[in-house]
Amino acid sequence: MLKYIFAVFCLCAPLFADSLGRLTGETISIDRRIPSLGFDWGAQDYTVGQSTPVDLSQGATDLLASATDTDLLVTTSSGAAGGPYALFDHIITFENLFNGTSQIITGFTFTDNYVFDPSQIQFTAHSLTIGFGGKTFGEEEMLDIALQTSTALQSSSVPEPSVIALLSLAFCLLCLKARRGRLSQVDRLA
After folding, report:
1. Distance in angstroms (rounded) separating the CA atoms of residues 4 and 2
2. 110 CB neighbour count, 10 Å cutoff
């Protein structure tokens, strides 16, 4: 009996499996803005694992943004300044992260070799913003933000037809097995 329950579980498991929090192959949007001036470098699409880093500088510096399977990266080799702006009035944004999946961003850890602290980073379920107004990137600085994700609970009032079919099949098999067990007991008693 236990092996039948295990078999039903194995058949149903792929229906309940969720994607792992991985970005490889996703197209995300990377941008740099100064909202108070209405200035926007223009969001650039970046396909994780395929595109070259996005250049967010104006030619004077080499401020680059990119992503790996689980991390967001901002690097510069010659330094960069956030200007005379409030912290979140000069920002770098990573958007459309984990879109189309049930994964959501729940936190982050980061490593940095210069000036960043956690208060400079804000996130939502599918985006992350780095504020660097009034801050300066040092030479050879790299900010590596490791995303922490979890599965969002998705409620649905109507179950998938395949789930209903598999559960019905499992129930029928269990009933059939129970009936055969009772019939074999009756035969033994007779």
Report:
1. 5
2. 17
Token couple for 177: 């097995």
pTM of the model: 0.68
Q: Which residues contact 146 (CB under 8 A, 6 or more apart)?
A: 70, 71, 108, 109, 110, 111
Contacts of 133 (CB under 8 A, 6+ apart): 34, 82, 83, 84, 85, 86, 87, 88, 89, 90, 91
**Residue 40 burial (CB count, 10 A):** 11
* Closest alpha carbon to 25 in 54, 52, 57, 50: 50
What pLDDT, in 10s, does the model give residues 19-60?
A: 446 888 999 999 999 999 999 988 999 999 998 899 888 665
Per-domain residue ranges of the chain: 2-17+162-189, 27-151
What is the distance between the alpha carbons of residues 7 and 5, in angstroms, rounded to a whole number?
A: 5
Q: At what angle do helices 161-189 and 2-16 cross, to 10 degrees?
A: 180
Count of beta carbons in the 10 Å neighbourhood of residue 28: 27
Say if residues 126 and 97 touch (Cβ distance below 8 Å): yes
The C-alpha angle with vertex 182 and arms to 178 and 185, in degrees rounded to 5, equals: 140
CA atoms 159, 165, 171, 174: torsion sign: negative
